[in-house]
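Morning - shikimate-3-phosphate inputs below, output right after.
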Amino acid sequence: MDGERGQEKQGRVLRVSPGGALVGRVVPPGDKSISHRAVIFGALAEGRTEVENLLEGEDVLRTLAAFRAMHVEIQQRGPGRFSIDGVGLEGLTEPEDLLDLGNSGTAMRLLTGLLATQPFLSVLTGDASLRRRPMGRVVEPLRRMGARILGRESGRLAPLVIHGGDELLPIDYACPVVSAQVKSAVLLAGINTPGVTSVTESAPTRDHTERMLAAFGGEVERNGLTVSVGCWPRLRAQSLRIPGDFSAAAFPLVAALIVPGSELRIDNVGINPTRTGLLDMLTAMGARITRHDERLMGGEPVADLVVRHAPLRGIVVPREWVPLAIDELPIFSVAAALAEGETLLEGAGELRVKESDRIAAMVDGLTRLGAQVEERPDGMRIVGRPQGMTGGVTVDSWTDHRVAMSLLIAGLACKGSVAVTRCDNIATSFPGFVPMMQGLGLNLSEGFA
Ligand code: S3P
């Protein structure tokens, strides 16, 4: 590729070379999903909420900026420490400009639900990846509640224009997509809508919204796969410590599993059962991952995890595990590419509408590294190579943070070094990824392809 233009297209390039075992102890950053919700409920509560270990990734910073734009006072008190002066359910005021949510699907979808009931106009936009992502899934139930939301043609609705202010009608919504973001958007509209709003899922998804709403004093009832919220709760400010992000921990975890001689302790990891499908998948493949000092942190279960290198064998992934590991499927595909035998992942079509088409992106990247992977409409079939992949190539992350980190970990099991292009978005969820992995002795550097 030639000169500056080439480098601009490649964005941040990271290079990884095979090296020694990963031994030591790491602490993952605060959980991204829980951090977004801490900002949202902190802003809607009455009084000052103090948050520790908030993820200072780009996505959460966008949510913080959105609430500041709606005139909520938020102060940074130290690394990961923020105080939020909540304005109550009716205290947000109209932003003067667009709310630019960057790369964050969670911010866009949860705020759409929340702002549908606020008495002002808001316009939500984001980067090219976010503007391509499906928003009809949140707009449809909200319009059924009476919300006025305008967008472009269906499928690519964002930017979204929300004319809040009309009183909505409660809904009993059978959610056709398995999505915590859709569930959360409807519930956030529900707390400002008369009556009881319910969402019924076809499979369980992460329940951080429900847990945090209850912790702030909201009325939340769960009955099987149905969750209901009452209207106009009096939310009270809280002091919260955000658990470490299981989805970030998944990268050093799989790295330790695939590099011989590794033994890693990962401290302070959220192990909410709606998030830990990857642990079940890796255990079924032969991994030994132990949990220590299990405890509760702000209503969320947390533990320290210990993982050692282990030979893995392929599995057929039970479909019901897919939503519980949805963000970990890219890094899971790396583990599968190094396992003995065949792995079949199906029922994971949602991966096609994440920050990138993660099925296509991982099949492309792993194939270039020398793995044997076959793309399926809703998943992939992988024939593992326990002896490692060839590498010695440049692969593209498709601008997707989780694809970038997964391919870098895959590089550890390659014979030749691997460069990954367009890694800038790693900062959306795991700004400390490179120093953390370097601290474990990984041969990871900023470089040119
Ligand atoms: C999230 C829900 C999931 C997940 C995303 C975070 C959340 O998205 O992939 O990274 O915080 O609610 P979907 O709801 O689209 O499955």
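Note: Residues 33, 106, 179-181, 184, 206, 326-327, 350 surround shikimate-3-phosphate (CB under 6 Å).

O.
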